[in-house]
Amino acid sequence: MRPLRVVLTGATGFIGSAVLRELAGHRTGEDAGSGERLVVRTVGRRRPEGAGPADEWVPADMAQPRTLRGVCEGADVLLHMAAVISPDESECAAVNVDGTAALMREAARSGVSRIVHLSTAAVYGPGPHRGTGVDEVVPAPVSPASRTRLAGETHALAAGATVLRPGLVLGRGDRWVVPLLAQCLRAVPALWEGGRGRVSAVAVDDLARLVARLALDPGAGAGGRADSRGGIWHASHPRPVRVGDLLHTLARHDVLPAVTAELPWQECLERLRAAQVPVSERQFALVATDHWYRSDEVWRVAGCDPGASVLERMEDAAPWYRSVVGAGVVG
């Protein structure tokens, strides 16, 4: 039987490496979920190491579209997990827009039947957002990374892709969310607005399971459906997380200092400005105030259990976070 051939970009990154590990787990049983043998081809500047074995590696640079020629040849599935998060608009556009466009052209040229494209809920902008569905708010991205990722979605959707917009992604390998929380606590050591804000979040391994399910099960794919969503799905855990609960959980695992004082939002902003830390008010609001999106449907359609709550996943990730936060790593 002909193997199922999967092309994966971003395999050396935080989320892409988790997807590679998940695919490797499927392959050890020599079963891709539908009786097909699985062959994984990674595409990127570096060969993935330690994240799970790939059958093939094609050296290519998403910022150099000509290097992507032929990367989807013979493939059945494309998982586009690569992205650039940078304050430089041109750097982001080169990968997130132009690179995505070139990759989707290659997928179309090669007749790839299933595409999963990773985006972000940050495309919605400042908020607050409370229980928002995909069609219920117009995206208003603020940062270069979010603007270009929204633009990149257009090319993915035109190719019939399933576009996933997760919120905060947590777990081993995260160098953004929890390190950012640590910076915010240094500037404002309190429960921001009493910790009542709720955010959409997902553990990286659970997100990887969802991506693999959409990739390997022909009946789970959402891309190309003739509905009003156009193939866009929120991809966080269905249950949003209270910010105060997240901070308390991380404190219990000795990742962040424990805080009990409560401050109103305006005073939090004043203290942030006075602290002169490398955290913008937009970034602070993203992790401190309501930014949660209805995310149950994609798990149901994919037939994939979302797993335990994100808070329960923090014990396994705690050693990683202690090493990163202790080293002062952000971004």
Task: Give me some keywords for this one.
15 strands; 331 residues; globular; two-stranded parallel ribbon; alpha/beta; 10 helices
Widest sheet, order of strands: 3-2-1-4-5-7-12
Q: How is the biggest beta sheet arranged? A: 7 strands, parallel
**Overall 3D form:** globular
**Would you identify the regions where 5 or more consecutive residues have pLDDT less than 50?**
29-34, 222-230
Per DSSP E runs of 2 or more residues, the count of β-strands stands at: 15
Count of helices? 10
* Structural class category: alpha/beta
Radius of gyration: 19 Å
Précis, in short:
With 331 residues, the protein is an alpha/beta fold. It has helices at residues 14-28, 89-110, 144-158, 177-187, 204-216, 243-252, 265-275, 281-288, 296-302, 310-326; strands at residues 4-9, 38-44, 56-59, 77-80, 114-118, 129-132, 162-165, 168-170, 191-192, 198-199, 201-203, 232-234, 241-242, 262-263, 291-293.
Structure report:
The chain has 331 residues and is α/β, with parallel strands linked by helices. It contains 10 helices and 15 strands. The chain has a 7-stranded parallel sheet with strand order 3-2-1-4-5-7-12, sandwiched between helices. It has a two-stranded parallel ribbon with strand order 6-15. The longest helix is centred in the N-terminal third of the chain and has 22 residues, at 89-110. Residues 29-34 and 222-230 have low confidence and may be disordered.
